[in-house]
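Tutorial sheet, problem 5. The two components below are modelled jointly, 228 residues in total.
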Amino acid sequence: DTAVSQTPKYLVTQMGNDKSIKCEQNLGHDTMYWYKQDSKKFLKIMFSYNNKELIINETVPNRFSPKSPDKAHLNLHINSLELGDSAVYFCASSQRRDRGFGDYGYTFGSGTRLTVV
Amino acid sequence: DAKTTQPTSMDCAEGRAANLPCNHSTISGNEYVYWYRQIHSQGPQYIIHGLKNNETNEMASLIITEDRKSSTLILPHATLRDTAVYYCIVRVPGTASKLTFGTGTRLQVTL
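Model answer (structure tokens):
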């Protein structure tokens, strides 16, 4: 009954490889996000999708390509992995309230620790 | 989104109230104050948010000053499991609005 689940939890891969991280949420939320947390622990947003439409695209190398097949899933594909891509990647989701009190707040997954060697 | 200033670290004895301050002097009228925390190696966890009134839920209380330039997150009875980095974020809620994390306050709860 996990709310936001990411797979895999750990990923170790060599430079130059292509890899994907998957994210699924069962909360019925309409918006999903990818965040990156680097070795200095800074959390930065990468992408955001609302109802399968890309709405936030930060300055991220185009080796990173998000895909949202439906509003419950947001996957992240990374081409030609580099050492600097090593980080923890967090998926999150949120639901905008119909009126009043803004959104409910984001629910984050437990993260995928990517290590590029 | 307005910037926030938080102390780098704080200590609190278990069972006591933890009061975490946040300054947001440039907050605009339609920006809310959000609090999240990140326990070691886990994803950030939403705690509470508010606009101008004080708010309380099962996790914490949020006190926002009348001029809205600062706020305090209160954990009424801190436990060891509350040891985490706490982030104060101000933003206009909405699907196109980014949730931008700063450096936060590292709260250490001790016996």
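Marking note: Chain A touches chain B through 28 residues (CB under 8 Å). Full credit if you identified this.
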